[in-house]
Amino acid sequence: MNRLVTEHLSIGYGDRLIVDDLNLRIPDGKITALVGANGSGKSTILKTMARLLRPQSGNVLLDGKAIARMHTKEVAKELAMLPQNPVAPEGLTVSELVSYGRFPHQRGFGSFTKEDKRMINWALQVTGMMELADRSIEQMSGGQRQRAWIAMALAQGTDILFLDEPTTFLDMAHQLEVLKLLERLNQVEGRTIVIVVHDLNHAAQYAQHVVAIKQGVATYQGTPNEVITADMLRDVFGIEADIIRDPRTDAPLCIPFGLVSETEEQQRELIFS
């Protein structure tokens, strides 16, 4: 049984329906990538699965229980969410930020227990942030800041981790830094990770399961080889692309060369202009 599933999930803002009758099964112990065009509903789905948004109908089930009816702290002990572009209070140090991840486990305003301190130190170590623990967040590079936020999520001690576009606005080196960390957390720690990602080649390289969203519908689901195809790119993204094999990993690589709506003459004009 998959720990995390959605059943007939419909999500909207006011009268505008974003997602309709969504049924997903998130594979345990794998990295799942949600991909799709801008405005397709990827982040909305992720936020709803993390209980940051309430669906109009349907359920998100965690271990067979509807998370909407679970206590907030109970949910926070099972899954952690890293939103887009999180902002820390000015002057906050890395260790202070990471300690916030232990709040779901605290009772009242008590001090940190030995277990809290152990989890904070473990999260700092596994993300490579121990040496930067006393440095303020605003002094960090983009990649370091993302690792600090991931460390905070890890300190919650959850088996399920959600991340909404964690590589956005990062240069290539810092993107790889974050993706390699997530890969290690999955392979070594066995974390179930659900990530919204724009770069299809990142999804193909680092995810074992891919869900392609088109106008709020999970149109394609499966392994990268099953999902990342020329037909899917044409249907979901409206682009023409060649799919080749990565010489190192044999994962599919997407090389776009035109828009579905373009004529060949328009494409030539774009290429030679």
From TrEMBL:
Domain ABC transporter: 4-240
Cross-referenced Pfam families: ABC_tran
Superkingdom of origin organism: Bacteria
The name this protein goes by in its record: ABC transporter ATP-binding protein
A GO molecular-function annotation: ATP binding
KW Membrane (keyword) present: yes
Alphabetized Gene3D superfamilies for the sequence: P-loop containing nucleotide triphosphate hydrolases
Keywords: ATP-binding, Cell membrane, Ion transport, Iron, Iron transport, Membrane, Nucleotide-binding, Transport
Record carries keyword Iron: yes
Membrane topology according to the record: Peripheral membrane protein
Localization (cell): Cell membrane
Organism of this sequence: Alicyclobacillus fodiniaquatilis
